[in-house]
Design a protein that fits this description.
2 domains, 546 residues, alpha+beta
Length: 546
């Protein structure tokens, strides 16, 4: 998850969702300021005016982010009117503007201005200063990009996103930590763009989503600096979770330009999906991502391809759960993936099966793996920049111990096979490359399910492996059991089609006989039992293979 993008999106969502408020207009404004500051943003007002029951803020600026990724909003006016019954109505200016800027991976600065139009917006807030509920109504939200500046070059970037009929609630409970929960529904969402790259390549796209719903919760500890140090914020108690559901999604695009050989190329594509759902959770207890998709289809044609690419699925899902904090104890993890009803277009099949000898039934894949792992370093721990580390080393006193270490390094013999004439920088670069080990070490892996159904064959597997007491998962201990159905028939067909060369058929069958044995005579069913022993040996169906 891009956490910078997430926090910036939360800020924008709050801008187009409830501004925090209370029973008086001044409390409304202060609540709003407190909210953005809890996310690491700064809020400044250019002018304040109180007339009767209405507080008006002008030239409001909200800024946040890190030096290499920042976002800012400029709001011409915010009017907060007390209704006399303990409620406050907040209205933003019809249009606000903003800028996203920073430095890309190549070290080049970029700047992307944008505008958000939201005519007719209104928020009604009730409650007490410590516990507020905000009901908001946004008939239209139009997000627009026009240009992008990268380095000294400015290029057009006409992209628009429109959201209709957004309503919902935003609830805040002040305290340490401050707690937020929200729920929002939107009508149709539309998007379009017509982008031209520096090389004159053009991409035009458009699409729509038939409504969306989002909800979630967040607890923000006092003083947390989410943008600057996510790890510290999590340890202080930062926790968040959310769900996004979308209706049917349709999109189309076309492109034109030149390929790597400077030859003209063009194409078009479209996607038609019935809906999807995304969810996430993040706290010091771990992070998780889940995604699920209903039926969808994709088509692509290109002048570079002699045939169209098209495929469809009935459904798909993804589930990943990981620990994030260092611990001497092993912590649970999960990875699951499912793809049901995958079909390919005839043009793709005909590339290798023009005669239709292979079954073209929908394919499926199910994978479910759980286990435990040790986290040897906090997942969101940010190592100090190289220059900081160098400064730290420079600041160390040059005492006798340091001199001795330098002498030992200078006089140490070169490793066997090393080139003594190689530049020292190469060794330093290699050391830097190798000095970043994985923060996660698997301890136990359970294959709860592996099921593949394709080309008329089926493969199923399950088992469990764990690291030995004196080793790691490079020499696991445990068993894996697998069954195969229709594999021999598939090998015969692939051989007859020439996809497996005749001189290799025997080798394939010998390999299968080494790892698999028949379940029952006369049936195309095989099984494999792999055993991983404490001494590092491996057995397949009782026969040692290592």
């Amino acid at each position: 998850m891009n956490l910078r993008l997430t926090s910036s999106a939360l800020a924008l969502a709050a801008m187009t969702a409830p501004a925090l408020a209370d029973v008086t207009s001044e409390q409304v404004w202060q609540s709003w300021v407190d909210y953005y500051q809890s996310l690491g943003y700064t809020v400044t007002e250019g002018k304040r005016d109180k007339s009767g029951d209405t507080l008006t803020l002008s030239e409001v600026a909200i800024k946040g982010g890190t030096p290499d990724s920042q976002v800012s909003f400029a709001i011409p006016q915010v009017a907060l009117s007390e209704s006399g019954d303990g409620k406050v109505k907040t209205v933003f200016a019809d249009t606000l503007t903003g800028v996203a800027n920073g430095t890309d991976v190549d070290g080049e600065s970029y700047e992307v201005p944008f505008s958000v139009a939201m005519p007719g917006n209104a928020i009604v807030t009730s409650g007490a200063p410590e516990d507020m509920t905000h009901e908001f109504d946004y008939p239209t939200i139009d997000f627009t990009l026009t240009t992008m500046k990268s380095g000294d070059k400015e290029t057009p970037l006409p992209i628009k996103v429109g959201v209709a009929d957004s309503t919902g609630t935003f609830h805040i409970v002040a305290g340490a930590p401050a707690k937020y929960d929200y729920a929002m529904k939107s009508g149709k969402i539309t998007f379009s763009g017509d982008v031209t790259a520096e090389e004159a390549d053009k991409v035009k796209f458009e699409g729509s989503i038939d409504g969306a719903e989002t909800s979630g919760e967040m607890a923000v500890p006092g003083g947390a600096k989410i943008e600057e140090d996510m790890n510290a914020a999590l340890k202080a108690g930062l926790a968040m979770n959310g769900v996004f559901k979308a209706g049917a999604l349709v999109a189309s695009f076309d492109f034109a330009g030149t390929d790597e050989a400077d030859q003209p190329t063009s194409g078009a594509g479209k996607y038609d999906g019935k809906g999807f759902e995304l969810s996430y959770a993040l706290s010091q207890d771990g992070m998780s991502y889940q995604a699920g998709s209903d039926a969808g289809s994709f088509e692509l044609t290109s002048s570079d391809l002699a045939f169209p690419i098209n495929y469809a699925i009935e459904s798909g899902s993804f589930d990943m759960q990981l620990p994030v904090m260092q611990s001497e104890e092993a912590q649970p993890f999960k990875f699951a993936y499912s793809l049901t009803g995958l079909t390919l277009g005839d043009a793709i099949w005909n590339l290798f099966d023009a005669q239709g000898q292979l079954p073209r039934d929908p394919a499926s894949l199910d994978l479910d793996v759980t286990g435990t792992m040790k986290v040897v370093k906090d997942l969101f721990d940010q190592a100090p920049p190289a220059e900081d580390a160098a400064d730290t080393a420079t600041d160390q006193p040059a005492d006798g111990a340091a001199d001795q270490a330098t002498d030992q390094a200078t006089e140490a013999p070169a490793e066997e096979g090393a080139d003594p004439t190689a530049p020292a920088g190469d060794a330093e670069g290699m050391a830097e490359f190798e000095a970043e080990p994985s923060p996660m070490e698997p301890v136990e892996v359970n294959i709860n399910q592996f099921a593949l159904n394709a080309l008329g064959a089926k493969v199923n597997a399950e088992g469990a492996l764990k690291a030995p007491e004196s080793g790691d998962m490079t020499t696991p201990v445990g068993e894996i059991h697998a069954t195969y159905e229709g594999v021999n028939a598939l090998v015969d067909k692939l051989g007859a089609m020439g996809l497996i060369p005749e001189d290799q058929i025997m080798g394939v069958r010998m390999m299968m006989a080494m790892f698999a044995k028949p379940v029952a005579e006369g049936e195309d069913k095989l099984e494999t039992k792999l055993e991983f022993k404490e001494d590092g040996s491996i057995f397949a169906n009782g026969q040692q293979i290592k």
